[in-house]
Amino acid sequence: MNKKEILNYLKNSVELFKKFDDNALEKLVDGSILSSAEKSEAIIEFGQKGTFMGVLMSGSASVSVIDDAGMTKQLAIINEGEIFGEMSLMSGERSVANLVAQTHCRLLKIPEHLFTSSVLVNPGAMAYLVKLLSVRAKELAFHEQNRLLAQRTEVNSSDPHGFTFASTVPHNILIINCGSSSLKYSLFDTEKKGWRVSGLVEKIGIENPRYVINGKSYDIKCADHKEAFVTVINSLTEEGFIKSPEDITAVGHRVVHGGERFSGPTVINDSVLAEIKELSPLAPLHNPVNIQGIELALKTFVNAVHVAVFDTTFHHTMPAYAYLYGLPYKYYKEQGVRRYGFHGISHSYVSLKAAQFLEKPYTSLEMVTCHLGNGASVCAVDHGRSIDTSMGMTPSAGLMMGTRSGDIDPGVIAYITKNENLDGDQIDDLINRESGFLGISGVSSDMRKLIQSAGEGHHRSLLAIKTFCYNLRKYIGAYVAAMQGLDAVIFTGGIGEHSSLVRTLACQGLECMGIEIDDTKNRAADSASKAVDISADSSKIKILVIPADEELMIARDTINAVQTERNSQNTVDISIPVEVSAHHVHLSQKHVEALFGKNHKLTPVADLSQPGQFACAEKVTLEGPKGRVENVRVLGPARKDTQVEIAMTEQFKLGVHPPIRESGDIAGTPGLKIIGKAGELLIDKGVICAMRHIHMSPKDAIMLGVRDRYIVRVVVEGDRKLVFGDVIVRVGSDFLLAMHIDTDEANAADIKNGAIGHIESIQSRV
User: Fold this and answer.
1) For the chain, first and last CA: distance in Å?
2) Are 63 and 98 in contact (CB under 8 A)?
3) CB 634 within 8 A of CB 587
4) Going by C-beta distance under 8 Å and a sequence separation of 6 or more, which residues neighbour residue 83?
5) Domains, the chain, ranges and CATH?
6) One-character DSSP codes across 134-188
7) What mean pLDDT do residues 536-562 have?
């Protein structure tokens, strides 16, 4: 910023300096220092003597303290246009908190002598500072009991992504993943951080079965899965990892298809097992084998809690327009024909791991995750939510795979069926076992062999590789458009982790989107055992290779489900009032004045359920590319950023396509025109459909056994039982207990204000 830009910014955007004359402000700027701070860099440290007052010109910073247990407690956020450091200068005391950059920040540092000689002598500035000091003193002097209550409702900041097990009692967790001819497992002990035993029984019931444990391989005799379980138990006991099957306290089962019924890890009982069996027609190659593993495990580990973790769960956040097919609607309503998506456990893990690696909040990122193996899929993860994925009702859709066709014109199937007189089983074999890499190359379904034969001049092998990578590149580009932005591309799975050629070809041509790969880093990543960054220094988008660890995710979800089950028995069942949120607008003060006149203040007409919030007399008209919505209520008080919350039906009327977001999360959202009595304005972002949410106090959270930002399922009782998933918990000391849903959902479910809900289960702890 040049001097003129700094002066304009201070005069127009920083409340403290609005009453300064131009000469005094110019003198102040001439003697100050413009600097910057990178993310996580300390701007002011606890105990530091005050030497300057700062103005945050861009970015945001966190005010925090660290308690005796080493836990960080965030007290406040300093945003663009706000000042800091004034308390130490005015009191002479050292800083009582850390100020750490949350993003890249630009700062104007006003030295102590100028603060004393120019700022404190200005009557308007002094009045503002006195008021500000009073507010900040109250923020710092919160009641100790409330602080402790609030701390107990926060997710552990040392492990925000839940990769360590937060169990109140010790557990030996066995993770089981049954395939048609294999049994893969991992054993975890919650008291031993990082400890695990992993094994595999392969070629069950066929020639030359083998058993692998912690990398050691043995030839065995194994006719069926029952014998495979005996092999696993005998091995674990002989090696001294457990004394007997009774040592296993929790068993997590991977289940491929959960349909629409299961949106989170679920403790298995007779009714749950029956429902999983009913879903077998949706995954005839997978669910029956998963069920066989569950039934054998229930007989073997009789003292354990058994939990089903579904591959489809992560994709439950997809909107209807992303999962519906262009078929008559009755096939969806009556037979469940829709896109479900798979590899959800893997997509969830690597997206969380990417947030940890990048040291950025999970819900702030837009990512494309690529799980590439013999089965392959791509997922668009927008602010922590899967909004689209390449696989469909079955794992045959999307990318071409080892032996699966991937996306195909349905007319092709009709054509081949007619010309070759194939029945359903033959068509299934064609699509799932004879196509993909094998079908095009005629050589192999293994990418490694294709790359070898292509290097030897085999044209069809090269064609298969190019076809796969071309379609992968198309999906990445399409998902950038779907999310309206991108922070990272992530590769995982056998091919994704070990084929630099595939990663190179997939990213070639995407430089226009800021995706640039570093060839040297990329080649080195083939042998990496941990997450690595392979993006070029000039790349605007991070490109990561992250080893898959689905067993860890299944273990995490298993222990969460066990804890939820225990909490449900030990916590109070509290009734949650349900409130219907009509469309509304939150305005910044700048936009209040643009729409209703200079110096206009919002006029309260009715208090809302949350303290300090109110409905205003002011109303506006919303205008999008297609049409208008009139008489939209403004809610107060004024906010930092303008935000418009509309229902799904109003999207079509306006011609805008907002994402489902938390209130305040407006990055990458669409804009529209807002018309008021005194003027109109065009916002370039800020339109959202609000995510379902529950406001509650720390005391409520503790009694309900939940924490801030947990995702829960809520049952609303009425003429029929309704279950709402993907409800985010928001905990605040001033919040009153209430769940908010939008008008469309309320109308569809015939829910009115005053309905009562109950938390059924915790869906996610991130």
Assistant:
1) 38
2) yes
3) yes
4) 14, 16, 53, 54, 55, 56, 132
5) 3-141 (2.60.120.10), 172-310 (3.30.420.40), 359-552 (3.30.420.40), 571-576+693-764 (2.40.40), 582-690 (no CATH)
6) HHHHHHHT--HHHHHHHHHTS--TTSTT--S---SS--EEEEEEE-SSEEEEEEE
7) 93
Judge whether 704 and 696 are in contact, CB under 8 Å: yes
Would you state the torsion angle of the CA atoms of residues 191, 192, 197, 198, taken in this order, to the nearest 10 degrees?
80
Count of residues making up the chain: 766
Residue 41: pLDDT band (50, 70, 90) is low
Instruction: Name every residue whose Cβ is closer than 8 Å to that of residue 442 and which is 6 or more positions away in sequence.
Output: 460
C-alpha span between 547 and 337 (Å, rounded):
32
Asked whether residue 367 carries a pLDDT value surpassing 50, the answer given is yes
Q: In what order do the strands lie in the sheet with 182-189?
A: 216-219, 210-213, 196-202, 182-189, 172-178, 250-255, 305-310, 266-267
What local confidence, expressed as pLDDT, does residue 570 receive? 54
Out of 70-79, 111-120, 498-507, 574-583, pick the least confident.
70-79
Q: Cα separation of 29 and 16, whole Å?
A: 14
Min mean pLDDT across 145-154, 466-475, 685-694 is at 145-154
Q: Cα-flanking dihedrals φ and ψ of residue 192, to 5°?
A: -115, 100
Contact 662/695 with Cβ under 8 angstroms?
no
Q: Is 667 helix (H, G, I), strand (E, B) or coil?
A: coil
Contact between 255 and 308 (Cβ < 8 Å): yes
The burial class, CB within 10 Å (0-12 / 13-18 / 19+), for 581 is buried
Contact indicator for 751, 737 with CB cutoff of 8 Å: no
Judge contact between 436 and 404, C-beta under 8 A: yes
Q: In what order do the strands lie in the sheet with 42-44?
A: 42-44, 98-101, 60-66, 72-79
- Under the banding of pLDDT at 50, 70 and 90, the label for residue 143 is very low
Q: Whole-angstrom Cα distance, residue 83 to residue 132? A: 10
3-13 and 22-30 helices cross at what angle (nearest 10)?
A: 120
**Is 311 an annotated catalytic residue?**
yes
DSSP state of 121: T
- Looking at residue 140, its pLDDT comes to 54
* pLDDT: which is higher, 229 or 675: 675
β-strand partners of 212: 200, 217
The pLDDT, as a whole number, for residue 545 is 98
pLDDT above 80 for 157: no
The model's pLDDT over 552-605, given as tens digits with 9 standing for 90+, comes to 999 988 988 887 776 666 555 688 999 998 899 999 999 999 999 999 999 999
- The total of other beta-carbon atoms located within 10 Å of residue 745's CB is 16
Residue 155, pLDDT > 60, answer no
C-alpha distance from residue 323 to each of 54, 263, 338 (Å): 49, 15, 6
Whether 260 and 297 have beta carbons less than 8 Å apart is answered as: no
User: Residue 444 has which token pair?
Assistant: 């192999």
Quote the CA–CA distance of 138 and 338 in Å, as a whole number: 53
Interhelix angle 550-570/344-358, nearest 10 degrees:
90
Contact indicator for 176, 297 with CB cutoff of 8 Å: yes
Q: Which of 30, 189, 224, 311 is catalytic?
A: 311
**Model confidence, pTM:** 0.70
Out of 149-158, 291-300, 316-325, 530-539, least confident range = 149-158
- Pick left, alpha or beta for residue 421 (phi over 0 → left; psi -120 to 50 → alpha; otherwise beta): left
What's the rounded Cα separation, in Å, for the pair 101 and 62? Answer: 6
Q: Which two tokens stand for residue 433?
A: 């076992």
| Per-residue pLDDT, 150 | 47
Task: Determine the Cα–Cα distance for residues 667 and 725; give it in Å rounded to an integer.
Answer: 24
